[in-house]
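Example 3.2
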Amino acid sequence: MEIISKYKRGWRQSLHPLLYLPTQCYGFIHMEGKLSIVATPIGNLEDITLRALRTLKECDVVLCEDTRVTGKLLAHFEIKKKLQRYDAHATDGVHKKIIAELVEGKHFALVSDAGTPGVSDPGVLLVKQAREASILIEAIPGPSAVTTAVSLAGIPGNQFAFLGFIPHKKGRETFFKNLSTHAQPAVFFESTHRIMKTLASLVEHTPEAKVYLGRELTKMYEEMLVGSPEEILSILEEKPVKQKGEFVLIFENKSKH
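Structure, written as tokens:
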């Protein structure tokens, strides 16, 4: 107990108030850095967790896709923190610099523009390199467009496949052809610029399928449209305002049920 008391300042308290994990020992082990993977709201700012707010306040630097988007989030919660852009265009040099600073003891928080980092975003590369460098990595869970859409849709069964974003060009046609092979419902993302084109492709390749279209999830105009690809396409054609927003689609192949 004397040893624990002596080095208490160099120990990190875990989730349980009575458990302590050694992250440093003064004199012979360097202070350990940390990479926190922080989930942020996908639309409704009230969805952020207390732990996420604490982490964003305590970290040294926030890595973000767009400093303007994350800057607004932090300003809303009156958090002042250094922001560093980290997106799909991050170079090897950027990664090496971040890893070096983590090794030196810095605490980085990684966020995406919305939702959970590492799910269809460039954060996976940094997490991989941090793990290879034996950096402490922690997950700060929270909002996710995938689980939000699945819970709102009420799809049958207890399995689904997540396919990420639909390819823009190369592989796009193959993507739609392969949808009919999925035995479980398939979840994927689409942007406002391509949603009509995507629905038209579903009409062409899988007209008998059932589609759940989640739009503006957690926001004021949140809705889940359910029907055949042609029915959903017609709704968006009749009301162009519904073509705006971020979309999560759930594809259910009727021939597999």
